[in-house]
Amino acid sequence: MTVYGKLRLGTRGSALAMAQSGLVAAAVRAKTGREVELVEISTAGDRSSAPIANLGVGVFVSALRDALAAKEIDFAVHSYKDLPTSAQEGPGPRGSTTPRTFGDGLCIAAVPPREDPRDALVARDGLTLTELSEGARIGTGAIRRIAQIAALGRNLKCVPIRGNVDTRLRKVAQGELDGVILARAGLSRLGRAAEATEILDPMLMLPAPAQGALAVECREDDDELIELLAALDDPGTRAAVTAERALLAQLEAGCSAPVAALAEIAEGDSGLEIYLRGAVFSPDGRFGVRLSRTGTLAEAGQVGRLLATDLLAEGADSVLGSTA
Ligand SMILES: NCc1[nH]cc(CCC(=O)O)c1CC(=O)O
Predict the structure, then answer these.
(1) Would residue 104 show up in a list of annotated catalytic residues for this protein?
(2) Helix (H, G, I), strand (E, B) or coil at 196
(3) Among the atoms of ligand 1, which is closest to the Cα of residue 213?
């Protein structure tokens, strides 16, 4: 990082990525007075229209990381749920509790305040899930969502879908689909939250680990930038995401696995507490294991790992392993 120059923020070119990067750039300007310049980086995930499952984890992430390592950019913003988990995820730079990802010279310098982590339904004619009739066609390619829709037992048909948020919403507007399920956070960041016809209760649709959260990544030896970016960090979000990601990592499941987790922070008897819910599903939705655990914010990682162990003891491994 050059001390007085503009900070270069690498971003994918999709509307959602640009919106997320724009929000972080504005926060950096507001909190540090530093100028930020957006640098567009195209990723293999943006160039291909193949199903995400065929492209492999981290397909949206690696081009940004390469640009960071090559010092073409100073920092990058990721949708946290798109980051692959890694064994190195744990305490961050200089002993802080900021989680980091790889042992590859990069670190997650800040986890900004989370958007709404829940999934949303955007359906024709303002309909909710219970109002959609049998056989209604719902666009979603995520096994986690497909399994939970199947578990409702309402015979809704999930149809694989890809493309950006705008493309997905258009399929409903044009009558090709009866509805789509999307992260509410994505809709909000694009200014389209009002188009949701139902915000899905986590009792019915537990979100993906880290959904709605952003990860701000930079080089781990960039002390000055790490110090600047700390101003964006939200300790509650960081603790929640740490618990959810620890659960995912412990299950050795990737971001496309039918694993759901949501940590909420609330005032408990002895200060702030984490309430972590986790679930794993068989892809057909016939089997699921759903459990919860609580702990202090400082125990976030441990809470996630213990909940994963609980889930495995209840048969999560056979559920995850089943290909039914
Ligand atoms: N799967 C892709 C993806 N990655 C992040 C978001 C939304 C924003 C977020 O969760 O932070 C989305 C779209 C979606 O799931 O609808």
Answers:
(1) no
(2) coil
(3) 11
CA-CA-CA-CA torsion sign (319, 322, 323, 324) = negative
Helix (H) or strand (E) holding 107: strand 106-110
Is the distance from CB of 123 to CB of 132 less than 8 angstroms?
yes
The three-class DSSP label of residue 163 is coil
Q: Residue 55: its pLDDT value, please?
A: 53
| Helix residue spans in 139-233 (DSSP H) | 143-151, 165-173, 184-189, 223-229
pTM: 0.90
What are 31-77's pLDDT values in tens digits? 999 999 999 998 766 666 665 555 555 677 889 999 999 999 999 99
Residue 204 lies in a domain: no
Whether the complex's predicted ipTM is more than 0.85 is answered with yes
CA-CA distance, 253 to 271, in Å (whole number)?
32
Among 199, 224, 250, the domain boundary falls at 199
Q: Is residue 183 in contact with ligand 1, taking CB distance under 6 Å?
A: yes
119 CB near ligand 1 (under 6 Å):
no
How would you classify the pairing of strands 179-183 and 137-139? Answer: parallel
Domain that holds residue 179: 119-199
The pair of structure tokens assigned to 17 is 């990525």
Number of domains, the chain = 3
Separation of alpha carbons 166 and 172, rounded Å? 10
Q: What is the domain-level CATH number for residue 288?
A: 3.30.160.40
Within the chain, which residues score under 70 in pLDDT? 1-4, 44-58, 86-103, 253-257, 321-324
- Which CATH number fits the domain that encloses residue 125? 3.40.190.10
Of 74, 82, 119, 178, which residue is the catalytic one?
Answer: 82
Looking at ligand 1, which atom is closest to the CA of residue 212?
11
User: Is 233 touching ligand 1 by the criterion CB < 6 Å?
Assistant: no
